[in-house]
UniProtKB/TrEMBL annotation:
Gene for this chain: rnhB
Family: Belongs to the RNase HII family.
Species classification: Bacteria, Pseudomonadati, Pseudomonadota, Alphaproteobacteria, Caulobacterales
Ion transport as UniProt keyword: no
Record has Transmembrane helix as a keyword: no
Cofactor note: Manganese or magnesium. Binds 1 divalent metal ion per monomer in the absence of substrate. May bind a second metal ion after substrate binding.
GO terms for cellular component: cytoplasm; ribonuclease H2 complex
The organism of origin for this protein: Brevundimonas subvibrioides
Annotated protein name in UniProt: Ribonuclease HII
Task performed by this protein: Endonuclease that specifically degrades the RNA of RNA-DNA hybrids.
Length: 208
């Protein structure tokens, strides 16, 4: 029998908050890998009081559960923010630096300014506060997990809207990620304005 994975906690946030003597946010992104659409980031400052139950890495949750938690996180967080970097910015900056831009925008969108951020992964982005990286952070830190939920739900909602603007690609289903229906749509329709045309898989499909 597989042992259940422990849920994220506020331990890392508490230790970092004590060190910097101020508020700490968790930061995570969604949409670095898709063939279409923006990269999205979220930043969240949580309080130990009134925490929503069930916060976890967004990938471990169903879409319905993410949507329910999104509202609870926004209602109970000390502060939260969401930021996007467009397909044009991804092409200009590359996906790594566009992700950092989205993270900066998420932090700047918060009503309260944090002194430090816990960021999922091992890359130390240049953000408007101190940064501490946490590999696997969305499974360890409640703030990062909450940010992963807000980033994922915001991006998914946007891609559903893009499905209406650019029908035929199936954006509402695959959210811009690689899928057989997405590949076939690209071959048939060509790229839409929100496709990442500089990406090698899309160039290869279009060259066929």
């Amino acid at each position: 029998m597989t042992k259940a994975r422990p849920l994220p906690t506020l331990t890392l946030e508490t230790l970092l908050a004590q060190r910097v003597d101020g508020l700490v946010c968790g930061v995570d992104e969604a949409g670095r890998g898709p063939w279409a659409g923006p990269v999205t980031a979220a930043a969240v400052i949580l309080s130990a009081d009134g925490l929503p139950l069930g916060i976890d890495d967004s990938k471990a949750l169903t879409a319905k559960r993410r949507e329910a938690l999104e509202g609870e996180i926004k209602a109970r967080a000390v502060a939260w923010g969401v930021g996007f970097a467009s397909v044009e910015e991804i092409a200009e900056l590359n996906i790594l630096h566009a992700t950092g831009l989205a993270m900066c925008r998420a932090i700047e969108a918060m009503a309260v300014e944090p002194l430090a951020a816990l960021v999922d992964g091992n890359y130390r982005f240049k953000l408007p506060c101190d940064v501490e990286t946490v590999v696997g952070g969305d499974g360890l830190s409640l703030s990062i997990a909450a940010a992963s939920i807000l980033a994922k739900t915001a991006r998914d909602r946007l891609m559903v809207e893009m499905d209406t603007l650019y029908p035929g690609y199936g954006f509402a289903g695959h959210k811009g990620y690689n899928a057989p229906v997405h590949q076939e749509a690209l071959r048939t329709l060509g790229p839409s304005p929100i496709h990442r045309r500089s990406w090698a898989p899309i160039r290869a499909l279009l060259d066929q």
